[in-house]
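Exercise 7. Predict the structure of Threonine/homoserine exporter RhtA from Affinibrenneria salicis.
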Amino acid sequence: MMSNVHIRGVVSAILAALCWGMALVMSKGVLVSFPPLLLLLIQLASSVIFIWSIIFFNKITIPDIRALKKVSALGLFEPFLTYMLVLIGLTYTRASDAALLQSLESIFIVMLAALLFKEKVSGLFVFLSLFILSGLYFSVGGNLKGLMSNGMIGNLLIVTGMFSAAVYVVLTSRSIAAADAIVIVAYQQIVALVATTIVFSGEYLFTDYSVSSPSIGIVIFAIISGIFQYALAFTFYLTALKHISAGLAGMFLNLVPVFGIVGAYLFLSEKMEGTQIAGSVITIFALLMMSILSGKTGES
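Solution. The predicted structure, encoded as tokens:
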């Protein structure tokens, strides 16, 4: 039987995947009105304001920044580098394809954890991971040809972003006990916001920069997408890392494409076929089995 701590970690990981999947669809929709770097700046700024408001309102203890210096610096990997690459990539590819490619993060996490920290990877874990990938293959309609030929530049950018995200997860998981999850997210996103501001300033000053005036509704939508994608998703995910292993938490990132594909169908009218529905069911079933088995063996 799974412990309450394990269940809390699993639920947090699922909620993080839901937020990321839905935010990916939101970002794709908003990119029609905003260039990638400007959108990232708006999203991060809204997330930072939201997170610090929660911290101060709830009077959460804030450790000395010097104690969190190393883990805060990881914000340069994610959200800064990861989502700069993802948002630029989204301008070249479909939201559903981008959602599928985000599942590569879970594989990168397991590989890096094994290489850097000698975390053991069981045969059952590998089998279920392959089962999940087969589900994801059908989630994209059982056809990778289109994924490889359409929007190749965007796809490569997103893959690179997922590797950056995996580096962030593996290294952050080693420092997650340093403070409350939301405090770590707050510091990391301040670092990411500063880095984004510097890069955006360079783009604005040294390129022929222009942007049309978006409607108030689009601006509000961009702000909401930032809160979902950075404030809520990262807090849920770091909470998960406190209760389950980085490898198991990473496997639940495979739900991002499931949520993303469904969201793209519902809100962006991207086509969803029966094979995609079947693939989503396979993915969810495999993740449930992985969670139950790891809970019984005491993985946390």
